[in-house]
């Protein structure tokens, strides 16, 4: 996915940007990142690991940033160098982020200046991983990346392409201009949803058959939670209406727990008149047993006959009855499709956008193990009033970020009307 254009009103001038460089061949590309931000008038501070200095000399970064480069915990003259460096940072960029750097960040290890700074810093953190494909795909790295995303770290890349080993594959660090654009977006994102009320539904509904059995699905809540996390990071006031989930819910949001489609409908409709944005990422059962029996069905009684009836279609109701929502609010639905082809996904998204009366539909492929229900990644297109964007296969956090970016633009346009 491309990093997209930065919001036009974002300025790097006067911002304190920490660039933390770990030891990978891609360190040479970070020179351009540092120079770009320095040229925009940012106060750029570079922290390097020892191994990073095998790839680029500290003098190069010092000359380009106009500031001394920090490499050691002791002997710099500062009393507590990691705290001094981290304090007041507006943005932290970790590039290249090696597998080792990612693992240390995920575990909170602070055994050198680089890792101690990253444990101390409170600014938004952008991570540009760079490693060989096998390391990127290893379950340990996948787990570490998931942990960092849960902590609110934003990923830039990696992309697929030529690697230092001579191979080609996933793990190549994003290009410098992509990192700079993501940095500018992160600088601009701090406030852009301030005062905006966002409601996100997440997880799956469970429609009871008897006291212990239900009709349900495998939604983990990951997608909805990622959207809630991203919106909250951009200062929105977020409510999550969650069905059954297995993922960890975000902090700093209101969490309303429901079980069935009817309960989800009631919780959403109650809050809809106050919400500027409603995102329906939950997997709502389309059908429920006509009647839930009060006592557990006995095996000895033989296979039960269960009559299913439709559940209320919450998205369609919100889309067809504008009076239920705040004026000029934005309605976003998801479409779960077993369709990997982005062109066809786009057509299905457009079709659902029209039939449900939504402003935006995110159509995701739920037919493969790396996308949709329970997966860490998602293959999706976003269809809105301004056309269809193929986001590709990305982490759910990256999809959430692309979606919130689209929502932010739509909000700005509607406010101008
Ligand atoms: O939770 P994860 O494990 O991360 O998985 C994420 C996800 C695959 C569940 C998510 O990305 C997703 O696709 N959510 C929508 C699933 C779904 O119900 O799709 P649908 O095509 O059946 O429904 C279309 C839209 O209508 C959805 O926004 C849904 O929330 C809404 N709907 C559906 C039925 C219903 N009775 N009421 C609704 O509001």
Helix and strand topology:
Layout: E1 16-21, H1 27-39, E2 43-48, H2 58-65, H3 81-86, E3 91-97, H4 99-107, H5 113-120, E4 125-129, H6 133-137, H7 139-150, E5 154-155, E6 159-162, E7 168-172, H8 176-189, E8 197-202, E9 207-208, E10 214-215, H9 222-233, E11 237-242, E12 254-257, H10 261-271, E13 277-280, E14 287-289, E15 308-310, H11 314-320, E16 330-337, H12 342-356, E17 360-365, E18 377-384, E19 387-395, H13 396-416
Parallel strand pairs: 1-2, 1-3, 3-4, 4-5, 8-11, 8-13, 11-12, 13-16, 16-17
Antiparallel strand pairs: 6-7, 9-10, 14-15, 17-18, 18-19
Q: What can you see in these coordinates?
A:
Helices cover 34% and strands 23% of the residues. It has 417 residues and is of the alpha/beta class. The chain folds into two domains: 16-187, Flavin prenyltransferase-like (Rossmann fold), CATH 3.40.50.1950; 192-416, CoaB-like (Rossmann fold, 3-Layer(aba) Sandwich). Strands 12-11-8-13-16-17-18-19 form an eight-stranded mixed β-sheet, sandwiched between helices. A five-stranded parallel β-sheet has the order 2-1-3-4-5, sandwiched between helices. Strands 6-7 form a two-stranded antiparallel ribbon. A hairpin with a 5-residue loop joins strand 9 and strand 10 (214-215). The chain is elongated, with a radius of gyration of 23 Å. Residues 1-9 have low confidence and may be disordered. Ligand PMT is lined by residues 219-223, 261, 280-284, 286, 311, 313-315, 333-336, 364, 366, 372-374.
């Amino acid at each position: 996915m491309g990093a997209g254009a930065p919001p036009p009103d974002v300025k790097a001038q006067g911002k304190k940007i920490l660039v933390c460089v770990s030891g990978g061949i891609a360190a040479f590309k970070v020179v351009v990142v540092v120079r770009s931000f320095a040229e925009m008038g940012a106060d750029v501070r570079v922290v390097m690991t020892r191994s990073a200095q095998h790839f680029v000399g500290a003098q190069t970064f010092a000359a380009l940033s106009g500031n001394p480069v920090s490499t050691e915990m002791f002997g710099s003259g500062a009393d507590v160098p990691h705290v001094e460096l981290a304090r007041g940072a507006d943005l932290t960029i970790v590039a290249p982020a090696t597998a080792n750097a990612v693992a240390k960040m995920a575990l909170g290890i602070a055994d050198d200046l680089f890792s101690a700074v990253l444990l101390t810093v409170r600014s938004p953190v952008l991570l540009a991983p760079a490693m060989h494909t096998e390391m990127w795909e290893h379950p340990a790295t996948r787990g570490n990346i998931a942990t960092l995303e849960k902590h609110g770290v934003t990923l830039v890349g990696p992309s697929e392409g030529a690697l230092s080993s001579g191979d080609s594959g996933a793990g190549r660090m994003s290009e410098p201009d992509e990192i700079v654009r993501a940095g500018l977006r992160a600088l601009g994102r701090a406030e852009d949803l301030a005062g905006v009320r966002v409601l996100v539904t997440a997880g799956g509904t469970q429609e009871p058959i008897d006291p212990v059995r239900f009709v349900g699905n495998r939604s983990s809540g990951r997608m909805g939670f990622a959207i809630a996390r991203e919106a909250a990071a951009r200062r929105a006031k977020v409510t999550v209406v969650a069905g059954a989930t297995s993922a960890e819910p975000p902090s700093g949001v209101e969490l309303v727990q429901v079980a069935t489609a009817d309960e989800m409908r009631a919780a959403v409709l109650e809050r809809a008149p106050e919400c500027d944005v409603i995102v329906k990422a939950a997997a709502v059962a389309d059908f429920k047993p006509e009647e839930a029996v009060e006592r557990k069905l006995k095996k000895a009684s033989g296979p039960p006959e269960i009559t299913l009836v439709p559940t209320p279609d919450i998205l369609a109701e919100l889309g067809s009855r504008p009076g239920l929502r705040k004026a000029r609010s934005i309605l976003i639905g998801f479409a779960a499709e077993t369709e990997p082809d982005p062109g066809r996904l786009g057509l299905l998204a457009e079709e659902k956008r029209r039939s449900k009366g939504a402003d935006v539909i995110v159509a995701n492929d739920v037919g493969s193990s790396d996308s949709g229900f329970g997966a860490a990644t998602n293959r999706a297109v976003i269809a809105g009033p301004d056309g269809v964007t193929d986001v590709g296969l990305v982490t759910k956090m990256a999809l959430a970020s692309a979606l919130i970016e689209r929502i932010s633009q739509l909000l700005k346009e509607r406010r101008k009307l």
